[in-house]
Specification:
About 2% of the residues have low confidence. The strands form two sheets. Strands 2-1-3-4-5-11 form a six-stranded parallel sheet, sandwiched between helices. The chain has a six-stranded mixed sheet with strand order 7-6-8-9-10-12, with helices on both faces. α1 crosses α2, α5 crosses α12 and α10 crosses α11. The protein contains twelve helices and twelve strands. It is α/β, with parallel strands linked by helices. The chain is elongated and about 85 Å long.
Length: 348
């Protein structure tokens, strides 16, 4: 049997409008004793408000959309989880779609979410031109990008990719490595290009010509990292260290190292980027640049909530927020590897 608001009102000894005031927080105040009676009646009857009708009244669906390249990738999975947690804390339900780094698929998800009237969107843009840009601008739905920016178009929340790559490469130099190769991501992806720039800068500051070092571009994945490492380590003068632009690539490098009978870090040191939880449990543990997942999510949700509240976004040059990263030292670079890995970085 369907429980109606009038049933709640009858049990609580009040009117349906008072029940509405309790559920919606207004527009009129309700005495605490009456409010408690209404809440007790709701609990006893198992009443659930009509979400669709409520959304129409509020002109909100209390849902947000997130499109990522692939949430099977641990980096995007952990980022999506953090965004879901922060969104839920603000009262929103999160819908997630995978673009598979395909612009047409990305556009389909954006159009679908807009048709479902999500209140806002988070987007990690796929490679290449943003085909859904016209849809987003026409819908006037607030949106924020993460990991990769769409310059001058929407607020973006990024991390210091260049600085993190510099720190990781510099750390390998401090371990005495002089032939430090770079296993980068795809050439047309912002994080990859920024991390390559950081690697180059650290080498130059260490007195090494970057162009004399091996640079490979490959997708952010274990298979790609494995395949590239097999080729890199087959060179006549193989590198004595690799900076990998993602932990997933570095996991593939570790597999290639083991198959070739090499020892990490003795014969090949490795440092990577992202700081996913799995990086603690490889053998040896991965030295990695930790991304602040929770802070990324908090900043992105804050930007979106500000827009939903009618707040204005500042000038273009102030619309990109860049968060700091932290180098986590483990065994793959030559540091002492903590027994059982170590705890994920604490974020305020």
């Amino acid at each position: 049997m369907t429980v109606r608001r009038s049933d709640v009102a009858r049990l609580a000894g009040t009117s349906p409008s008072v029940v509405s005031y309790v559920l919606n927080g207004g527009p009129r105040g309700v005495a605490e004793e009456t409010r408690q009676r209404v809440l007790a009646a709701i609990e006893q009857l198992g009443y659930r408000p009509n979400g669709i009708a409520r959304s129409l009244r509020m002109a909100r669906t209390m849902t947000l959309g997130l499109v990522v390249p692939d949430n099977a990738n641990p980096f995007f999975a952990e980022l999506a989880r953090a965004i879901e947690e922060e969104s839920f804390a603000e009262g929103y339900t999160l819908l997630i779609g995978n673009s598979s780094e395909d612009d047409d698929r990305q556009t389909t998800y954006v159009q679908t979410f807009l048709a479902r009237q999500v209140d806002g969107l988070f987007l990690v843009p796929a490679h290449g031109p943003l085909g859904c840009l016209e849809d987003l601008q026409r819908a006037k739905t607030p949106w924020v990008t993460l990991d990769r920016a769409v310059e001058g178009i929407a607020p973006a929340v990024l991390v210091d990719n260049r600085g993190g790559a510099y720190a990781a490469t510099r750390h390998l130099l401090e371990h005495g490595r002089r032939r430090i190769a770079c296993l980068a991501g795809p050439q047309d992806v912002m994080p990859a290009t920024d991390r390559v720039a950081g690697w180059r800068s650290a080498l130059a500051d260490g007195g090494i010509q970057p162009d004399a070092m091996s640079l490979w571009h490959a997708p952010f994945g274990r298979q790609a990292g494995y395949s590239a490492a097999r080729k890199m380590l087959a060179a006549d003068e193989r590198p004595d260290a690799i900076f990998a632009a993602s932990d997933e690539q570095a996991m593939g490098v570790l597999r290639a190292v083991a198959e070739l009978g090499l020892v990490c870090p003795d014969e090949l040191a490795i440092a990577s980027f992202d700081g996913v939880a799995a990086a603690m449990y490889s053998t040896p543990g991965l030295t990695t640049v930790q991304q602040p997942f929770r802070l990324l999510a908090r900043a992105a949700v804050s930007h979106l909530v500000q827009q939903l509240g009618g707040g204005e976004v500042d000038a273009d040059e102030a619309r990109t927020e860049v968060l700091p990263v932290q180098l986590v030292r483990r065994g793959s670079c030559g540091c002492i590897d903590p027994t059982g890995g170590d705890a994920p970085e604490t974020e305020d």
